[in-house]
Amino acid sequence: MPGGDPLNPLLHPQLVNPPFGDPGVLVEVRFERRCLLLDLGDLSPVPPRLLLRTTHGFVSHTHMDHFAGFDRLLRVCLGREKALHLFGPPGFVDRVAGKFAAYTWNLAPGYAADFVVKATAVEEDGTALTAEFHSRRSFAREAERIVRLDGGLLVAEDALAVRTVTLDHGIPSLAFRIEEPAHVNVFRDGLDRLGLAVGPWLRDLKRAVFRADNDDAPIAAPGRDGGTVVLPLGRLKAEALSVTAGQAIAYVVDAAFTPDNAARITDLARDVDLLFIESPFRAADAETAAARRHLTTEQAGRLGAAAGARRVVPFHFSPRYLGQEEEMRREVESAFRAE
Ligand SMILES: [Zn+2]
Ligand SMILES: [Zn+2]
Questions:
Q1: Any idea what DSSP says for residue 123?
Q2: Measured in angstroms, how far is the CA atom of residue 102 from the centroid of ligand 2?
Q3: What separation in Å is there between the alpha carbon of 198 and the centre of ligand 2?
Q4: Which pLDDT tens digit goes with each residue over 96-110?
Q5: Separation of 125 CA from ligand 1 center, angstroms?
Q6: Where are the domains of the chain?
C-alpha cells in the first residue's frame, strides 16, 4: 500500500475559510483528538470544541489577516487548563505580549485553571526565542530563553514532526511542513493469527515503530484468551503491520517569487501529499504580484510541480478577482500539470 492508506489518514487538513477569505488551515489529528492551526486569521468558522483541542498554532507572519484570530482562540481557551504552543517569525514574542497587553487581567490569577501560551519566535540564524504567558500570573512574559533549532524542526513527536523555513515577503514569512515519520497500518487477521487482542497497546506498538526501535525489542500484548503475550517487535511488523511512508502536507503563504524562495519552497514541500499554496494574483498580473511580494496562480502551480507535490490547494485569492475563482483555479492547475 505505497503512500499510506488513504482510508485511514492521521492528518485531516482543511481550509478554515473560502479562498477569498483569510488564509488558514485547520489540521485535525485523528486518534489524538487534537488539532493544529496554520495561521490565525479569521477563525470564526472553527467550532469552539476544535479550538479547545488545538495544541499548536503556526503563524507565518503577523499581518492582520494571519493573526487577528488570536483573540478568538484566547477567548475560547481562557479559563481552561491547557497549554497552547505558538510559533511565528522574528519579533513574534513581542507581538504575542502586545496582544495580552491589550486587556486587563486582574481576575485571571483567581481562575482555578492555568491557561498557558508558549510562544516561539523563529529567527533567521537557526535560533529561536521562547517565552511563556500564564493566566495564573496575568499573562506576564516569563521564562524567556534562546534555543537552537535543528534544521528548522519546531515539533518532534513520535507520530508527528513540523518543520519551517523562512521566506521573503518583504518581511520574513514562515512556511511549514507537517508530516508523520511513517504510517503504520495494523492487520486484524495478522493479530488473530498471533492470538492477540486489539486495544490501547497498539498505540504503543505504533510508537515503537515510529521511534525505529530494534526488531528484537520485546512488546507486551494482551492475548485473545487473556493473559499477556510478549513478542519481538520484528515479528509483529512481519505478521501484523504494514509500514509505509507517512502523510505530509505543506503550507506556503505570502512569499515573493524569487529564486531563493522557490528553492526553499520546493525543498520544504518535496513530495508532499498536499500543498496549500497562496495564489493571490492572476498569471497576467505577475508585475503587481512581484511588487506586493506575493505569488501568482501560475507561479504557485509551477512551484507545486517542481516540489513533486501530489496535489495543490490554492487559496488566499485577492478580493480584486471576486467572481473569477474558477479561472484562478484553472491557471494554478494548468501550470501544475504542464511541468
Ligand atoms: Zn502578508
Ligand atoms: Zn496575507
A1: P
A2: 23
A3: 46
A4: 999 999 999 999 999
A5: 21
A6: 11-180+246-338, 184-244
| Cα–Cα distance, 90 to 70 (Å, whole number) | 17
What are the grid coordinates assigned to 297, written together? 496562480
| Per-residue pLDDT at 3 | 38
Q: Is residue 246 within 8 Å of 217, Cβ to Cβ?
A: no
Taking the centre of ligand 2 as the mean of its atom positions, its distance from the CA of residue 254, in whole angstroms, is 5
Q: Which ligand is nearest to the CA of 41?
A: 2
Query: Over the stretch 11-70, which tens digit does the pLDDT of each residue have?
Result: 999 999 999 999 999 999 987 899 999 999 999 999 999 999 999 999 999 999 999 999
b/e per residue 276-302 (b: at least 16 CB within 10 A): bbbbbbbbebbeebbebbbbbbbbbbb
Report CA(57)–ligand 1 centroid distance (Å). 17
- CB-proximal residues (5 Å) to ion ligand 1: 63, 254
- Distance of CA 151 from the midpoint of ligand 1 (Å): 24
Superfamily (CATH) of domain 11-180+246-338: Ribonuclease Z/Hydroxyacylglutathione hydrolase-like (3.60.15.10)
Residues 297-309 pLDDT 10s = 999 999 999 999 9
